[in-house]
Amino acid sequence: MTGTGPWWREAVTYEVYLRSFADADGDGLGDLAGVRSRLPYLADLGVDAVWLTPFYPSPDHDAGYDVSDHRDVDPRVGTLAELDGLIADAHRRGLRVVVDLVLNHVASAHPWFVAARAAGPGSPERDRFHVRPGRGVAGELPPNGWRSIFGGSAWAPFGDGEWYLHLFDIEQPDLRHEHPEVAADAAATLRFWLDRGVDGVRFDAAGSLVKDPAYPELPDGWRAGDPSPFSDRDDVHEIYRRWARQLAAYPGDRLGVAETWGGPEIIEPYLRPDELGQAFAMDPIYWPLRPEPWRAGVDALLAATTRHGRLPAWVHGSHDVSRAAQRWGRDGARAVLLLMLALPGAVYLYAGDELGLPEVALADDEIRDPVFRRSAGADRGRDGARVPLPWTEQPAPYGFGPAGSTPWLPQPAGWGGFSVARQADDPTSALALTRAALPLRGTCWRGRPAEVSWLDAPADCLAFERGAGGPRCLVNLGDTPVDWRPYGQRLLLSSAPVDGASLPGHSTAWLR
């Protein structure tokens, strides 16, 4: 059964974390040429689209998410011509290309911020940013107690009595999208990449683009995820309505997807008919492997998204969280993948999770993530999920780059045991499961009714179908095997080997 509606409605999108995917020139950093060389692998995997993380010029304080020029390519990873070639090659292979736009902030090396730093207090150059006078006798204290997502204060001093806001790293000053020049520049950036033929855009830090202009203090007891004056405010949606109109002006159902963090109440407004096509459902990455939170959570997300004719965008993993195998266990990660692929909506798969890569424990002096520095080591950051991919069994760098090159993050000994080469011919491997699941999803689940009909199931299990007489999904989240035969006459696929009629614990089966 084929899908209906825009291409992205039920797409499987593969996140290429650019710097860790494939290094063609041997400088240790993944690049566009490396991605282009691996497009056959992605096409064979069966994904519909490729999401490229930032490739723009950057001082690299936050792995490329501190952008100094939004409309160019960093020479360390390629050129505009190479990106054009990658897009053309992807399209020839039936793959769509989604780019990552980081519009909440710029790098401290961006010309606008360089000018703001030099211009002095009260200058129009500073009006593009969130700049406030400090508290205290001489402005020596931050304007309020807001905390950076990366740790520490969200304010940094200019040294002249004024402070600038940075919700992330100190090298990432936040932009004021109310400023007409900021709004016009963002529109120009979006137009630039759409004109080059990208099929969609992920809006990084989607909810943070508008802050309360009064900059009020956070209430006592506030915790991350609670409503705040700097995230998901009602007035942020006018920005997305403008950008949605830009997307709609191009042919081919161009996608706008918001990087949202939170429950259905956060996601729903971004999906109104005049806004975006998708908003990330990140909450499931934190759901424990028990039936109750999954059943309730799926119902709530479906209700919120289908109300506007949309579907959830399930996130199996990303560069901002620990590896799926770390969060859910090796077997659990495979089970959740089949569960998500059976649900209505799109699925985002993080590079390397199709190999079942584990989280890597890096030494203190190997960590590059600014979260580690800003938290004084209390938070070890996200680099454990960003270690460059292994393509061959040996020797290091395991095919990530040319022999003898040194990746930007160290790969552990034995990394080749998880490699594409090792798993390619192993029918029990995570890679084999992914390669089997993605095309089968297209004929089995894609295009079926958006409703999930829950079936009676044993304790610690979930079971559902989508449309009478269609396939069924059985998820065993417990430790004890269960009989799959009450749910189907034929086993189509399972995330773990099945012995007769027994579906083992921590596994999912598709049945007909």
TrEMBL record:
Top-rank lineage group of the source organism: Bacteria
Family matches, as InterPro entries: GH, GH13_cat_dom, O16G_dom_2
Signal peptide annotation: none
Domain Glycosyl hydrolase family 13 catalytic: 15-386
GO molecular function: alpha-amylase activity
Gene Ontology biological-process annotations: oligosaccharide catabolic process
Gene3D superfamilies in alphabetical order: Glycosidases (3.20.20.80), Oligo-1,6-glucosidase, Domain 2 (3.90.400.10)
Family to which this protein belongs: Belongs to the glycosyl hydrolase 13 family.
Name of the protein described by the UniProt record: Alpha-glucosidase
